[in-house]
Automatic annotation (TrEMBL):
Organism field: Paraburkholderia caballeronis
Protein name per UniProt: CubicO group peptidase, beta-lactamase class C family
Signal peptide positions on this chain: 1-23
Keyword tags: Signal
Keyword Mitochondrion tagged: no
Beta-lactamase-related domain boundaries: 34-395
């Protein structure tokens, strides 16, 4: 997997676990495989805590909080624990942008300079290309991420914040720093994970004359009653303590943390989530709960619910960049806000063609498979195992064994995606 993408409690009786909540018609046997994956990850000291929700055919059929929100203080994880979303922010900001497109307040092919006149990064030859809203949404704008570069890379040298750290830098200053670095490629020429959602967030604020948090609240989180989701945590007591991978167990993050990922390093300032003055990073700055994010996914499943038109959601779920981008490995392209699985035959997954998914650098994963009609939200407080370790893959496979062939299928059920290929 490309470098830019590779972005536990004690053993035995000391593992805290909330008994899973099962929907009517969901058997204990179906839940047991999912329970086992969560229990093994916590007992094996790979993750500290997690909140996992599974929806099948539009209904939440599995819901569990397990492990610790704060291991050292003995605070159990709860299903209303607030997490630092990191890149779970991106789908929400992308959805807000698409709603503004529906309202004709912005256009996908608008040049970014219409809304941010001073944002004019250059190509290596000194020319200034046009960057569009569409290219920001699809990470094809020529931008990059500091964590994907070595320590002496251009974004690091320019002091660009990835939106996870440096709460003291302003959005205007971060945009200036981004624009001071030559583009990695001509806009539209290829895909590279990047700071583009931070730039998009600034454009949305300019286009509406409102701060980005207000835009997202009015367009998406408010109508969906995602009351615990925003750009800073109002309740420190409910905020999960972040941990990073370590041996023999995950290590509590320091006030300034660095976590190797792929060939780069993710830099975190966890207290940013409590700083109301930190700039609202459209790519990494939000906080929220697992139930809130599941509300969003179920709205997407319903064709947009109260926030988007069905044709807009269909456009968002369509691959816009091609599988050559390998946004989650072979077979994966990218839509507006998430990766899109185009060719399941190229990757060992039970997910069907059209599945959308992404993750978050504090230790999160989610996906929605419209063929099998399964949605999963798995938020952990352990970076990066919860995002790109064995846990999310083991959880995914357990969910398909339990539900892909329908309630009562049990372990070993064949996913519908097998016939969909």
């Amino acid at each position: 997997m490309r470098r830019s993408l590779v972005v536990a409690a004690a053993l035995g009786a000391s593992v805290v676990s909330v008994v899973p909540c099962l929907a009517e018609g969901t058997g204990v046997g179906q839940a047991s495989a999912i329970d086992a994956v969560i229990d093994d990850a916590i007992a094996g000291r790979r993750i500290v805590g997690a909140v996992v929700l599974v929806a099948y055919r539009g209904h939440v059929v599995y819901r569990r909080a397990a492990g610790y929100a704060d291991r050292e203080r003995g605070v159990a994880m709860r299903d209303n624990t607030i997490f630092r979303f990191a890149s779970l922010s991106k789908p929400l900001v992308s959805a807000a942008a698409m709603r503004l497109v529906e309202e004709r307040k912005i256009g996908l092919d608008d040049p970014v300079t219409r809304w941010l006149p001073s944002f004019q990064p250059r190509l290596p030859d000194g020319s200034v290309p046009t960057i569009t809203i569409r290219q920001l949404l699809t990470h094809t704008a020529g931008l990059s991420y500091g964590f994907a570069e070595p320590d002496d890379g251009p974004y690091r040298k320019a002091g660009v914040s990835d939106g996870l750290d440096d709460p003291g830098v302003s959005l205007d200053e971060n945009l200036r720093r981004i624009a001071s670095v030559p583009l990695s490629y001509a806009p539209g020429q290829r895909w590279a994970y990047s700071m583009s959602l931070d730039v998009l967030g600034a454009a949305l604020a300019s286009a509406t004359g409102k701060p980005l948090p207000q835009v997202v609240q009015q367009q998406i989180t408010g109508p969906l009653w995602m009351n615990d989701t925003g750009f800073h945590a109002r309740s420190a007591s409910r905020l999960a303590t972040p941990y990073q991978d370590g041996a023999p167990e995950p290590v509590r993050m320091a006030s300034e943390a660095a976590v190797p990922v792929g060939g780069g390093v993710l830099r975190y300032t966890p207290e940013r989530a409590l700083d109301a003055h930190a700039y609202p990073s459209g790519g990494a700055g939000m906080v929220g709960t697992a139930p809130d994010f599941m509300r969003f996914l179920l709205a997407i499943r319903a064709g947009g619910g109260s926030v988007l038109k069905p044709q807009t959601v269909a456009q968002m779920m369509r691959d816009q960049v091609g599988t050559a981008a390998q946004t989650q490995g072979p077979g994966w392209g990218f839509g507006y806000g998430w990766a899109v699985l185009d060719d399941p035959a190229l990757v060992p997954t039970p997910q069907a063609k059209g599945t959308i998914q992404w993750g978050g650098a504090y230790g999160h994963t989610w996906f929605f498979d419209p063929v099998n009609d399964i949605a999963v939200v798995a938020l952990t407080n352990t970076a990066v195992e919860g995002m790109s370790g064995e846990f999310p893959r083991e959880l995914r496979d357990a969910v398909y064994r339990a539900f892909a062939a329908g309630p009562g299928a049990g372990a070993g059920a064949s996913p519908a995606s097998a016939s969909a290929r």
